[in-house]
Amino acid sequence: MSGAGKAKIHPNKEAFIEGVDHILAKWTALSLAVANSWGGPDSEEKRDNMVDEIVEYFDNVVLKKQTPEPTDLEEILLDIMDEDFSIVLEDGSEKEVSKTLVTVYNECRTGDFTTVDKLADERDAREARGDVSSAVQMSRADGDAGVSGSGDEFSGSEEDEDEDGEDEDSDVEMN
Asked: What is the pLDDT of residue 8?
């Protein structure tokens, strides 16, 4: 038995980490910050650390047997964007990003990778078109008519929030 190997990550957690990465890659404000090096020369590393910080938040929630709260995540996102990228968000995009993170967490913990798979497919399609560096193009590819400078591709329409027609809160079981 070698001590050099990394501990195996549960498939549900692995999918969640992937989902967090996809969600952040789709977030226009963060994509623009990284593409324009608003966080300095290590902007990409700061973005990767953001994934780790979000996963750590959920790990702590699990350890404390608590329910993840979108408002807590909103504060984390706002703090990171301000401290690491010198961005003060005024568009409310952190609210949609945090809701999506909680939704993906709840799905992944039950073994449902539907949203993660959808996000992966969308990202693959953007990469195939060569759109990975342009948050504006990513937003248009998702069906928005354009970007008004809000920095939030998630706020395009209410329909995007819950495509199955059900109330988002009713989809989540927290036991």
From this structure: 87
Q: What is the pTM of this model?
A: 0.71
pLDDT tens track for 47-92 = 999 999 999 999 999 999 999 999 999 999 999 999 999 999 999 9
Q: For residue 26, how many other CB atoms are within 10 A of its CB?
A: 22
Q: Taking Cα atoms as reference points, which of 24, 29, 91, 28 lies closest to residue 54? A: 24
HSE, CB side, 13 Å, CA atoms: give it for residue 1: 1
DSSP letter for each residue of the chain: --TTSPPPPPHHHHHHHHHHHHHHHH-HHHHHHHHTTTT-TTHHHHHHHHHHHHHHHHHHHHHTT----HHHHHHHHHHHHHHHH-----S-HHHHHHHHHHHHHHHHHTT--HHHHHHHHHHHHHHHHT-TT-HHHHHHHTT-S---S-S-GGGS-GGGG-TTSS-GGGG----
